[in-house]
Amino acid sequence: MFLAVAALALIGGCGGAAGSAAPSPDASAAKDKKYQVEAAKADCMKKKGFKYVAFVQEWKKLPKDEKRAVGDYQAMREYREKRGFGVFDQYVYPDESNAQDAGPESNPNGKIQSSLNRAQLGAYDKALDSCAAAAIKQVLGLTVKSDMDYLEQAGKAADRAIERTLNSDPTLVRLASAMATCLKGKGYSPGEATPKAMVQNGLQTFQDLWDRLGREQRDDVPDAAPPRKDGEPWTYYRPTLTPEQAKPYLQREIKAALDDLECGRDFYPAYLPKDKAVQEQVGEQYPL
């Protein structure tokens, strides 16, 4: 399983991509703060008698990422024709996915935790929560209870910023409404038609399907996910699928992603650059 912050508009899966090939000074500063948090966390864990590796997730950026991030139609279409929203493609093209992204499984702390028994893991998690809170307070000046609480606060901060700026933008509201009407005409049920929702609806549909398949393969979690709350980190359960098993899901996803793109042809170039700016602003306070 892995954690995702649904509130932070997962643009990479929606056909855009967070970040750029040349990070801004503000982005570099936020990254430096994250390294500082991790270093302080590792030092704290060492003092408590636990092993923890200071680790900041690196996501490799492709040349076309920046074009997709600002709503370039051709760049978005090329991505979606092969990968849909970026959910089931990882099974059909595993080698390419691994080359493109250093995924969560590359975190060495996952291996450390998986080697612990239940009692050891409980003590480790308690120490990690304490050290995360101390490190984040020391470096960022924020009061949190744990890494999970930090993610939740970051998600809520992004929600507030998007609601204050993007969801109240008259042009974006008009374009989002037109996109929703178009999708309904193609047989989809986009639900809420706010600008933020229109970016997330398609991706969320297939993430929910992915999570449901993962839950059905496990005996220790309910098949149905509990209600999702805005701003809270979300745990997704990764299903085990062969490339052949995943292909029908990816085909459905590609069709939905292309329909979504056609309906949002005017919306995405207007929304994505503004969303990217909001995420960068929130990231200065909550580096991820």
Would you mind describing this structure in some detail?
With 288 residues, this protein is mostly helical. The chain has one domain (2-285). The chain is built from 13 helices and two strands; from the N terminus they run E-H-H-H-H-H-H-H-H-H-H-H-E-H-H. Strands 1-2 form a two-stranded antiparallel sheet. The relative contact order is 0.20. The model is unreliable at 1-25 and 98-104 (pLDDT under 50).
In short:
Helices cover 63% and strands 3% of the residues. By secondary structure, the protein is mainly alpha-helical.
- Give average pLDDT, whole number: 85
Residue stretches low in confidence (pLDDT < 50, at least 5 long) are 1-25, 98-104
- Termini separation: 19 Å
Work out the strand percent. Answer: under 5%
Domain unit count: 1
**Helical residue percent band:** 55-70%
Rounded to an integer in angstroms, the radius of gyration calculated over CA atoms is 19 Å
Largest sheet: 2 strands, antiparallel
Class by alpha and beta content: mainly alpha
Name the shape in a single word.
globular
Please give the number of β-strands.
Answer: 2
The ordered H/E elements are: EHHHHHHHHHHHEHH
* Number of continuous helical runs: 13
> How do the strands line up in the largest sheet?
1-2
